[in-house]
Amino acid sequence: MRRPVPIGQRSLVAAPLYHMNGLAMCQTTLHQGDTIVLLPQFTTRGYIEAAARHRVAFLTSVPTMIAMMLRERELLASSDLSAVEAVRMGSAPITQALIDQVRAVFPTAQISNGYGTTEAGPVVFGPHPKGIPQPELSTGYPHPDVQLRLVRDGREVEDEGELQMKCGALMTHYHKLPEVTAKAMTPDGYYRTSDVFRRDENGFFYFVGRVDDMFVCGGENIYPGEVEKMLERHPGIHQAAVIAIPDELKGHKPIAFVVKSPGTSVDEQAIKTYALANAPAYQHPRRVFFVDEMPLAGTNKIDKRVLAKQIPTGGDI
């Protein structure tokens, strides 16, 4: 009689496998001989129910998915999620407020902030070689087998710039797209990620935003992710998404879409006042629009193109 094969621990994946977030988790899980619980699509209730039903140990996600899940307070309270040992988020900026909320729901789970690219693999960062604890908002310290540099205005810098990388997992080219390949690769063989990172005094890296998301407002560079982090520190804001709209005087100006925290009451002026008190004045959103939930793109990130279509036409924006 054949002895049953132990199934090991389970990982929950609700991200598309054409995206590194879901694919890397599947590869890691299979390499360890563990089991994947694979969902055909992400819904908050389906995600929570699958985690409870299958006694999932590892949750992998885009931060937006976890933020949406945390709003299902009644379902979370009635679901047995005690098997969860780790919550891994990646592929988008993460905030301290979100980490704190995750820790409240999964007090014994390890919470990690991951980063990787389809073009150069999922392994970019790791622990500090001197054992210095990794800050919660950091993606980690450069892996010894990965070469990284930060570039700003065409020169390498130490503090903040576009992340460029070279490693053994680096692609050779995009299939039949030589012009796109030439834009993505530097003459000395580094991949231009188009992701902006900051490096602290201990060498830890922090994701700031996308090069193509940055816009200029009155001569000042604004990364939407930085404004979103600031806004989400407000107790009445569960999620925030910031986009730029054209402005005759400033060039562009930020506006925000906000999902309120459950059971709270906050209005547009209160959010503007908070922003002005907690960030440079040029970062404050000129308008705030409230939505019940954020629309998601195919990769489960916030779809800002859908939000842009909800901006009222005409009137004072």
Concise structural overview:
The protein has 317 residues and is of the alpha/beta class. Helices cover 24% and strands 27% of the residues.
User: pLDDT under 50 segments (min length 5)?
Assistant: 1-6
Counting DSSP E segments of at least 2 residues, the number of strands comes to 17
**Beta-strand percent range:** 25-35%
Number of domains: 3
Question: Approximately how much helix is present in the residues?
Answer: 10-25%
Outline: globular
CATH class descriptor of the largest domain: Alpha Beta
End-to-end gap: 72 Å
Average pLDDT, to the nearest integer? Answer: 92
Number of helices: 9
Radius of gyration: 21 Å
Q: How would you write the strand order of the largest sheet?
A: 2-1-3-4-5
CATH architecture of the largest domain: 3-Layer(aba) Sandwich
N-to-C series of helices and strands? EHEHEHHEHEEEEEEHEEEEHEEHEH
Main pleated sheet: 5 strands, parallel
Which structural class do the helices and strands define? alpha/beta
- CATH topology description of the largest domain: Rossmann fold
Q: SSE layout and pairings?
A:
Blueprint: E1 10-13, H1 20-31, E2 35-38, H2 44-53, E3 58-61, H3 63-69, H4 73-78, E4 86-90, H5 96-105, E5 110-114, E6 125-126, E7 141-142, E8 147-152, E9 155-157, E10 160-166, H6 178-184, E11 191-199, E12 205-210, E13 215-217, E14 220-222, H7 224-231, E15 237-247, E16 251-260, H8 268-278, E17 288-290, H9 304-308
Parallel strand pairs: 1-2, 1-3, 3-4, 4-5, 16-17
Antiparallel strand pairs: 6-7, 8-9, 8-10, 10-11, 11-12, 13-14, 15-16
Helix pairs in contact: 2-3
